[in-house]
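Data availability excerpt. The first of two example chains:
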Amino acid sequence: MPYLIAAVVVLAVLCLLNLLLTFGIVRKLRAGQGNTYAGDDPGLMIPNGSVMPEFEAETIDGETISGDTLRDALIGFVSPHCSACKEQLPNFVEIAGNHRARGRTVVAFVHGDAEDARKMIEPLRGVASHVVIEDAEDGPTEKAFKVAGYPVFGIVDGAGTLTASNIKPKELPDPAPIPVG
């Protein structure tokens, strides 16, 4: 009988330890999860507060754009091979429409060959001021912006400084209209 009581006590202590460890792990996972989609500066491109880098890229309409083009702008980097990009594209299109209505520039950078990118470009045509397809791995805009993952979206102020970035365009701050005059 004493062996049975000892076994039950040891088992109860082990169960309590297991329960405490499980609570600790869950708490750590929840704390880490909050940082994954924290919003500002997801670390997938140049940090917030950075001045627009020097670059030149050709749009699908044959125009050449540079860092100066990105003043008072909403920018987005997406890829047709990215499921999160496909998920966030309708949100980007909606936000882009709001930015265009306020007089801001919208530039979409699509990473992938023209054939793959065509499906992503269609919804962007009506709302993006400029659409750039970057076919090459480590292309000029990806190098300039130090893009480390997709999707990533950002807001650039009138001075050409990245003021906010996020993996979810709806979580970007809504900027005021550009003053006229």
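And the second chain:
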Amino acid sequence: MAQMREMMYEGKAKQVFATDDPTLAIIHYKDDATAFNGLKKGTIVGKGVINNVVSNHLMTLLKEHGVESHLVEQLSERDTLVRRVQIVPIEVIVRNIAAGSLSKRIGYPEGTKLKSTVLEYCYKNDDLGDPMINETHIAAMGLATKEEMDDIASMALKVNEVLTDYLKDLNIELIDFKLEFGRFDGRIVLADEISPDTCRFWDSKTGEKLDKDRFRRDLGDVEEAYQEILHRLMGGEKK
């Protein structure tokens, strides 16, 4: 078993530690919560545990459908062993229904179903506020090759297809979500996390928000929403 060594990186929600195996790292999930590029800060009790378990559960599901990720194995409630990837500095936002910044940008009321899935790319740079970019920017900046972007786009759409179908049976509507990818052993793999921090999950019957929007918008019952997602994914829909 790889042994944890020095911390390589600390982000808003996670710490990443080196191990004695140069191809592996350990991710530690925190309860810290941020929004609006770090302008709003707080704590969601138990969030780290839930995000770790939920993300690993969904990445395991995706692997069964042919989507490779950095996941190796869960070590504890908050720690997961992953492949040590070179992160592609592009955030991929997959949108099925208008919400959040897209609603403001195009004037669609939240909850408007889009005629087709939208893929958006943002330059992963906190100092610049993660600005939106397109494929010509990506090529001009040398962030990824055309082949890598083709892989990223097709993998993102596959993730959307698999998760949308899976969550529908749990009465969860997948509104939109953010993905990150990395390079490992010459290929693109899914990285980062898939959780209520990075996805908009709405109850498909009531429209209730079950994700970090409850924290962003001061809606209350934040911990309860995260717990509800964990319960539905790991134990079936609450009756």
